[in-house]
Automatic annotation (TrEMBL):
Belongs to the initiator RepB protein family. It comes from the Bacteria. Residues 18-159 form the Initiator Rep protein WH1 domain. Pfam families: Rep3_C, Rep3_N. InterPro entries: Initiator_Rep_WH1, WH-like_DNA-bd_sf, WH_DNA-bd_sf. It comes from Sulfitobacter faviae. Keywords: Plasmid. This is Replication initiation protein.
Length: 425
């Protein structure tokens, strides 16, 4: 899947100075590549309201598509969400007052799938850390999609968060094994195996695939490697697209149209910045022309990525033109017939209303004894069982019996409807 829209910090956040130390949240590496990508997509979706809402939602099929699952593969999605809820995120840092703070939290506090929607939440403490750009950096999904190795993506995530300081700092080898998800493996207790199978391939993929270049450095205690760190610098070949603070974009009609479709603020600004307002507007028009689409955001994403275009109709043949003329004439005739029929129906409605109004006047002019006798007589006078049932239910307000009521009262009171036009003839 190509060109999945990415997300990153706004320009203002990227210019913040680093205070004392840059802390990072370490996430256990025991996630598959797709599960790790899923974690990043969920965070991107929730980021704008991370600390203001206690739960977040995303269309499940769109989520599957963004991550790389089959859009109907809910079983795999369920298993991945379960893994995220069972995975811990840990931080060890200085708080705002310069005191050491350690914390641990499940990566997701809960997740559920219902009616095609994925709902999920973060613990308040973790949400606060994830939203702080000094602690945690969002991952560019356009970069993420390039990775083919879970170990490489894990290394990239843990290094990218230290880009502004140029180094991860020294990690004990035991911590590094845990970040790569190979702790507990006897095979990787050997640094030789760890270096050959994990470090070198992961470093090579990060440098080839991502927007940063990393260089490992080792620290030994005696003959044993005890710590590792990674020097980090930007990769000029794959630098991330800068996004402005968005105030100008938010004033435009295209941004408003994206909001109406359910696109998030961050993603809307990303698409407009990357593709331009005219191109995005063209694809919105294309989407609206498709009728009822199950997942408008996912479909619009595909339209932007793949440049969907409406096919221009071929020039009609002479035969098709002649058929079109015939259809037009038939349509005109049909329209005229429909208009005539509507006029007749309206006239009948008015005549029925006039009859019912006159019937009410006659009934109200009769004494209670006469009304009772009139009602019984009319029921005997009616021959249709349906009309009898309707009159028994509604009495003299049964409009279905209007023409029969007129005939009945004209028989009892000649000239009762002298001023009314015939009805139902």
């Amino acid at each position: 899947m190509s060109n999945i829209p990415h997300d990153k910090l706004t320009g203002a956040l990227r210019r913040q100075s680093v205070k004392k130390n840059v802390a990072a949240i370490h996430v256990s590496g025991k996630l598959t590549l797709l599960q790790r990508k899923l974690s990043n997509v969920l965070l991107l979706n929730a980021y704008d309201t991370l600390v203001t809402r206690n739960k977040h939602q995303i269309d499940a099929r769109t989520l599957c598509m963004m991550v790389g699952y089959n859009s109907n593969d809910m079983d795999t999605l369920k298993q991945s969400l379960r893994s995220l809820a069972e995975t811990t995120a840990e931080w060890d840092m200085l708080d705002a007052n310069g005191r050491q703070e350690w914390g641990v939290s499940a990566l997701l506090s809960y997740a559920k799938l219902s009616a095609g929607v994925c709902e999920y939440a973060y613990s308040p403490a973790l949400a606060e850390k994830l939203h702080d750009p000094k602690v945690f950096a969002l991952i560019n999904l356009n970069i993420q999609r390039r990775f083919t190795s879970g170990h490489a993506l894990a290394l990239y995530e843990n290094c990218y968060r230290f880009l502004r300081t140029g180094s991860t700092g020294w990690w004990p080898i035991d911590l590094f094994r845990r970040l790569m998800g190979v702790d507990g493996s006897a095979y990787y207790e050997s640094f030789k195996h760890l270096n050959a199978k994990i470090i070198k391939p992961a470093v090579a993929e990060v440098n080839k695939t991502s927007n940063i270049l990393i260089t490992p450095e080792l620290h030994k205690m005696g003959r044993q490697v005890s710590e590792i760190r990674f020097l980090i610098k930007e990769n000029p070949q794959l630098a991330m697209l800068d996004i402005d603070d968005g105030e100008g974009l938010r004033q435009g009609a295209v941004y408003t149209a994206l909001m109406d479709l359910g696109v998030s603020d961050r993603l809307a600004r990303q698409w407009i910045s990357e593709h331009g307002e005219d191109y995005v507007s063209e694809k919105i028009t294309y989407l609206k022309g498709r009728g009822g689409v199950d997942s408008p955001v996912g479909y619009l994403r595909a339209a932007l990525q793949n440049d969907y275009k409406s096919e221009k109709p071929a020039a009609p043949s002479p035969k098709a033109k002649a058929a079109a003329v015939v259809r037009k004439a038939q349509t005109a005739q049909t329209d005229a017939a429909e208009e005539e029929r509507a006029q007749v129906v309206e006239e009948e409605r008015k005549a029925r209303a006039a009859i019912m109004a006159r019937v009410q006047e006659i009934v109200e002019s009769r004494s209670p004894t006469q009304r009772d006798a009139d009602r019984k007589l009319f029921l005997v006078w009616l021959s249709d069982e349906l009309l009898k049932s309707e009159f028994s239910r509604l009495g003299w307000k049964a409009a279905l019996c209007a023409s029969e009521m007129r005939a009945f009262w004209e028989d009892l009171i000649p000239d009762a409807f002298a001023d009314e036009a015939p009805f139902g003839v």
